[in-house]
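ESCALATION

Customer reports they have been waiting on this structure for their group meeting. Please prioritize. Original submission:
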Amino acid sequence: MMEVRITDWHQARDAARAIRTEVFIREQKVPEELEWDDDDLTAVHFIAWDKGEPAGCARLLPDGHFGRMAVRREWRRSGTGTVLLQSLIQYAFSQAGMEILRASAQTKALMFYHSNGFNADGGFYADADMPHVHIHREHRARSLSDHLIPGKDRKTHRLETLIAQSGWLEIVLSANPHHVTLLCGDPHHALWSDPAVIEAFSQYARTDSSHGPRLTLLFPSEEKHWERHPLVQLQQRLSSLIELRIQPQIPKQALLLAEPWGVMQFVNDEIAMAEMNNPSRVEHLKLELRSLLEHSHRPQNAPQSFL
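Update from on-call: job pushed to the front of the queue and completed.
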């Protein structure tokens, strides 16, 4: 049975250091000098225990900011994160008398926080070289904002940095769209080699494989050494979940459709315009792309595992 213990740094240190070292430093490659700080000494710490094993952790600062929330791999997708976060929320509002909670959240976790009553604030920024957004939850708030929520946010977002573009993709893919099509007209663009983006595509493709491939990749050609491209390597590993096609007629500027509501379209080599809730435009673009897809072909020189 899961138990969350609320304590100080002296009591939490061994378990918290083990969890945060495993998740942040080893998995996410956060530099040690960024992970450890003096805030641990004044924070209230929350440790989730399962059958005597530390499964997750978080900390709450006196000013209402919380963070360093991590769940070990073995306990992910088991509800551990929700139990941990709800314990922190209950303590902050009911015992500590706080009126608002704030945090810096990795974009891939935004949907998790939103499902627990948090709103996103502002735009994307980098923290430890990973895309983040500010989030908050008020004690007596009655409604949730649609900002950065797929299927609800009607704004058009101008994404001018790799951090913003990868953050947008992480949010959209974590919302589990029905199908994603990527026209990768410029495979050498840095976004398509970003480890965070590759991992987001991987997680999305693995989420539900009951209806065949959920991700379609269109490349303009089979270049020399193209098998080394991170997206091609991902498709090779997940060949039953990701479809790879060749279509020389696709535009150079990338286009991504996340059916039925999301679209990201590059207007030049650096800037993309993106929407999270425009089903009519997605459907229109889907119809426009039908001919390109119908006249595409499978790679001729791919390893057998592609076919």
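Sent to customer with the following note: The two ends are 45 Å apart (CA to CA).
Escalation resolved.
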